[in-house]
Write a structure and sequence with these properties.
Length: about 375
Amino acid sequence: MNEELSIYVDHICRMLNNYNKIMVFGAGKVGYEIYRILKKYNIFGGYIDNDETKRKYGFMGENVYSLESVANEKIFFVIAGSEKNSLEMERQLKMQGVINNKNYAMADEFRKRILPIIIFYQFGDLYTNLAQICVTERCTLKCKKCAHACHMVDINSNDMAIEKAIESADNFFSCFDYVGEFVLIGGEPFLYKKLDELIEYIGMHYRDRIGLFSITTNGTIIPNSQLINVCIKHDVTIRISNYSKTLPNLEKQYCRLYEVLRDVQCITWETDNQKSWFDYGFDHKIQKTIEETKKTFESCRTMCREVNGDKYYYCVMAHTVAQNMKLKEGLNDYIIIKKNTNRNTILEFELGYLEKGYLDMCGRCRGKDAENYLIPAAEQVAK
C-alpha cells in the first residue's frame, strides 16, 4: 500500500476508536444519503438538527437530537448540509465546545476519504459512493459544454452492447461489495434499446448490494410501460434533469412525463430544475504546471466513477469527454477490475492515491474552481 495512504488509514482507524458513535448533523438530503450507508453497516448513531419539528417527529423514522443533548457524549460528527449551512453548523459545534480537530468531518470528506476506510477495515467490504455505466453517448439534445461532450456524438452512433454492459456490472460487483449509488447514464439512457434488460439483470443479481439504483434522464423521452414496470420491480429511481429554464419549448414534454409518472403507483422519481451548469473548460487546454494539475485533482477528488468492461475509471467525465472529443488525455486513467484484482490496489485507487498524483484530464479541467464559471444549463449548439 502507498506509504502516505497507510499513514492516513492508521490515523483514521485510531481516531475513530476514540468515539462511541457516528452522528450526522443535518437531517436533510445530504444527511439522508450518508445515513443510508451508516444504517446498512449498523454504525448510525442518530441525527442532530436545529429544527425543533424534526426533533419532535424524527426524520426518516430515526430520532433527531439537539446539539445540547449530546454535548457530553463521545461522538464523531459528520456535518451534512449545504456549503453555507455546513459552515454555520461547524461554528455551532465549536461554540458548544463539543468538537475538536479530530472528531468531525464535512460530508464530502467523510464520503470520499473516511467512509470507504471504515467499511474496508471494520467490515472487510470494498465500498464506493457512486459508480456509473454509460450505456450510450447518444443524446436527444446537443448541449454546449456538455460534461460528457455528448454534443460531439452522432445520433446514429453505436451504443454499448448489452453484453458489455452486463460484463461491466459483473466485473464491478466481483470486486465491490456495496455501492452507495449505481447509475445508468448517457447521453440519454432512454435511447438505449435494451435498458429494461440491463435493469432486470442488475436488479436480479446485485440489487441487494446497491443503496440507490438510478437512471439520469433529460426528460425528453417518456419511458414505456415495460421499462416503468422493471424500474418498479427493482426500485430504480428516475432522476429527471429539467432544462425548461433554458429550453422553454420542453415544458410541455416535462408536463407529459410528470403526468405519466404520477399516474403510476410505486414508481420512484425526482426532478432537478437546472438553471446553470459549471463550465469545466474541457474544450480548451488550460496551461498548467504539474503542481497546478495536482492541486486541481486534490481539490476535486470526484466521487463519479465509471465502469466500462473491465476498466474502472476514476472520473467518468474525464473518460467520456476524452472519448467523445477524441482527445488523448483521460483515456488511460483507469485500473482493471476483475474478480482476482487486489482489493488493496482498488482501495488505493478509490481514495485517489494515484501514481502520478493527478488525472491527465485535470490539465484541461477547472476542477472545483469550475463553480466560479457558470453557464446556462443545456444551452443548445447552433444548427
